[in-house]
Inverse folding.
């Protein structure tokens, strides 16, 4: 046909076929390189995401642990502060009690002195008998058995009603 022999046409077709195969292989190779690059990028992205997720999980666990520790520390601090507050309040109460005790002791001493002073004044006027042995027990018992009342015995002997009753109780005599 155009001056080509069948053998040369076959060779041309063979070369064209080999060229097409080479061209397809080249395009396939470049495409696979492009796909490999994309896959590597995806793999790197997944690795980065996994690393970030790992870091986030670790951060969350650390924060939870830190929160637990800070919560425990906070509870301990609150307990310590409460104990300190109670101790301070108890110390203040103890001091107030000591002050009150000192004041009571002082007042008791003052009242004791005043009582002794009053007793001395009363003795000066002669209202207290000088001795409690002036009570004639036999006479009191005899008067009571004779039918005298406690009031009458007290007037007669110039003793208090309580002293007469006490003397009768000591003698086991019922009213």
């Amino acid at each position: 046909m155009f001056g080509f022999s069948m053998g040369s046409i076959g060779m041309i077709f063979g070369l064209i076929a080999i060229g097409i195969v080479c061209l397809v292989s080249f395009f396939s190779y470049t495409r696979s390189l492009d796909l490999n690059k994309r896959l590597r990028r995806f793999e790197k992205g997944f690795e980065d995401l996994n690393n970030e997720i790992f870091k986030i999980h670790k951060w969350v666990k650390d924060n939870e642990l830190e929160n637990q520790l800070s919560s425990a520390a906070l509870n301990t601090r609150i307990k310590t502060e409460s104990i300190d507050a109670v101790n301070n309040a108890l110390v203040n109460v103890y001091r107030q009690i000591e002050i009150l005790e000192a004041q009571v002791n002082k007042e008791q001493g003052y009242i004791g002195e005043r009582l002794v002073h009053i007793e001395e004044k009363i003795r000066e006027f002669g209202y207290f008998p000088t001795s409690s042995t002036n009570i004639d027990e036999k006479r009191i018992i005899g008067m009571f058995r004779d039918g005298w009342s406690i009031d009458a015995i007290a007037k007669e002997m110039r003793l208090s009603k309580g002293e007469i009753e006490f003397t009768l109780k000591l003698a086991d005599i019922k009213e």
Remarks:
- The chain has four helices and no strands.
- The first helix runs from residue 6 to 125.
